[in-house]
Amino acid sequence: MAATGMIIGQDGLARPAWAAIDPLLQAYYDAEWGMPVRDERGVFERLTLEAFQSGLSWATILRKRPAFRAAFDGFDPERVAAYGDSDVARLMADAGIVRNRRKIDATIANARATIALRAAGGLADFVWSFRPATTPAPRTQAEVPTQSLESTALSKALKSKGFAHVGPTTMFALMEAIGIVDTHLLDSHRRGTSGVWPPYPDSVSG
């Protein structure tokens, strides 16, 4: 293990500890986390999963992701927005997902808010409009922030549009997941691979 806490895998690639052991997490880290997501359904799915993750491990959510997709009609906002009491009952009986009534209700409300946002350019453009001028440059996991001025502003703006379960920490996690910020550690093989940010900000040498 490197001094930064990175783990060098058998493939010679450096990853943070959270992505270095579990094959599912490693695959997610290597191929998806931090890559740009700019379509409505993709952003809605990740916003939903980040909200369900609150209080749980990401590994739990990732393992349940196929069940979430099946339960929520592929995260089609229009279909989820039309859910009624029978759908809520169905979801609360679905052992494949996280059965949390507040989060289920929030997902339905967020689908309706997503449709309403289309008149103002859509969810994806709205979320991406909170991209900061710079991105973090952490050398260790302890240096990775959990929220920012931008994630706090995004949280407030989404709540004003009718979204729920979109706190500043959850929104920062969303921003990390869809490439709005790059919090890959500087020694990670994934640093700068999104194409959104250079590997090393101007303020960082090396």
TrEMBL record:
Entry-linked SUPFAM superfamilies: DNA-glycosylase
InterPro entries recorded: Adenine_glyco, DNA-3mA_glycosylase, DNA_glycosylase
Protein name in UniProt: DNA-3-methyladenine glycosylase I
Organism of provenance: Nostocoides vanveenii
Lineage: Bacteria, Bacillati, Actinomycetota, Actinomycetes, Micrococcales
